[in-house]
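> example.struct
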């Protein structure tokens, strides 16, 4: 009955999402269903609400999202990502590098509209050497690679928090997979672009390197602090925000509105609702009983959760599957550790590249005048290759660590 009730709760959430309701509403309905189906007592409900709303983990998540968004607003105000793209062009003078790295840098900006900034860059770099469908794929694919591992994205912060692991371990564990993503895109499509370089007279590369550093130092420093010191995201980013205020010569009038715009109500509300849902699932005791249920099955639990993450992400989206399935996966496979997180987040990332719930895909196909189906077709060779490699890599990590 535990499994049936759990499936029913997930089904309710998916149905509400398919009615085009926001994630926070869908998960709220799922939380209500959990209370009713499992008969959670009033005292346990109050406890779950208290921990989910004002618990330490929730507060840390909210502060992380707020600080990252604030830094994003500062980058936008100074046009630093556009500056980084131009500097990159002048440094490498390579159409292939422009097609890959420029969208990746622009992808550091957690915004759906960022894909439109990357589009003309890829179009110019590819010229007539890639088809319109291939340009669509390259633009979308490389713009989204940063979403697979960087703590500038809500899904990464949420996943690491729910897993109970360290951000540093996750980022380092994902780095080989990031290299694989770059290589797969290159092997299947980018290598079709000729190596021919154009003459750029009057360009001083040391000056361009300086411009690139000036544009990206805030992001690089934030990530370095997280990796080296292992501090929480908000404690790493807030000092960088303060430094940026003085180094980039912001005036108070410029940042005043950022204190309000950085507070993205839907994101914060969704975070709180997800944390309450997690506490309610814990209160049912089903998470503790799941390992016994899965151990009786012939199929390894990691395979089951891989399939759940893949198809669930297609239907419900990235953050929804992280919120719903990640705590259960780690409870079911208690020794999974970093290898399990890398595997599930790799599956989560690649499934989003063909998910109809991914708004960026609709934007980029519209921009290039191509279809969603054609983008899926171009993604499939990379998707299949990546899933196979990620599975093998995660298995290797599991046996080493």
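> example.seq
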């Amino acid at each position: 009955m535990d499994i049936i009730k759990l499936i029913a709760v997930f089904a309710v959430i998916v149905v509400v999402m398919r009615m085009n309701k926001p994630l926070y509403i869908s998960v709220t309905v799922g939380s209500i269903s959990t209370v009713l189906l499992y008969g959670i007592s009033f005292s346990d409900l109050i406890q779950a609400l208290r921990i989910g709303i004002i618990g330490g983990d929730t507060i840390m998540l909210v502060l992380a999202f707020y600080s990252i968004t604030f830094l994003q607003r500062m980058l936008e105000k100074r046009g630093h990502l556009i500056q980084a793209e131009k500097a990159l062009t002048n440094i490498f003078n390579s159409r292939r590098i422009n097609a890959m790295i420029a969208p990746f840098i622009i992808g550091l900006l957690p915004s759906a509209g960022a894909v439109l900034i990357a589009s003309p860059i890829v179009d110019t770099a590819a010229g007539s050497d890639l088809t319109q469908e291939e340009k669509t794929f390259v633009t979308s694919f490389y713009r989204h690679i940063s979403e697979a591992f960087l703590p500038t994205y809500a899904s990464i912060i949420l996943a690491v928090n729910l897993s109970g692991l360290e951000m540093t371990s996750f980022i380092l564990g994902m780095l080989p997979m990031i290299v694989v993503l770059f290589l797969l895109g290159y092997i299947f499509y980018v290598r079709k672009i000729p190596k021919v370089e154009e003459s750029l007279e009057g360009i001083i590369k040391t000056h361009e390197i300086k411009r690139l550093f000036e544009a990206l130092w805030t992001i690089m420093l934030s990530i370095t602090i997280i990796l080296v010191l292992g501090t929480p995201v908000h404690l790493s980013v807030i000092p960088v925000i303060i430094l940026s205020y003085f180094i980039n010569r912001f005036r108070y009038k410029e940042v005043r509105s950022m204190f309000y715009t950085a507070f993205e109500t839907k994101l914060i509300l969704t975070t709180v609702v997800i944390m309450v849902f997690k506490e309610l699932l814990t209160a049912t005791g089903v998470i503790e009983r799941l390992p016994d249920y899965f151990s009786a099955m012939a199929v390894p639990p990691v395979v089951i959760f891989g399939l759940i993450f893949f198809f669930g992400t297609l239907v419900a989206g990235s953050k929804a599957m992280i919120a719903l399935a990640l705590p259960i996966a780690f409870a079911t496979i208690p020794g999974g550790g970093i290898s399990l997180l890398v595997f599930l987040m790799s599956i989560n990332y690649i499934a989003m590249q063909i998910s109809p719930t991914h708004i960026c895909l609709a934007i980029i196909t519209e921009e290039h005048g191509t279809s969603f189906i054609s983008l899926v077709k171009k993604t499939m060779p990379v998707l299949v290759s990546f899933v196979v490699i990620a599975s093998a890599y995660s298995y290797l990590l599991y046996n080493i660590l």
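> remarks
The chain has a mean pLDDT of 86.
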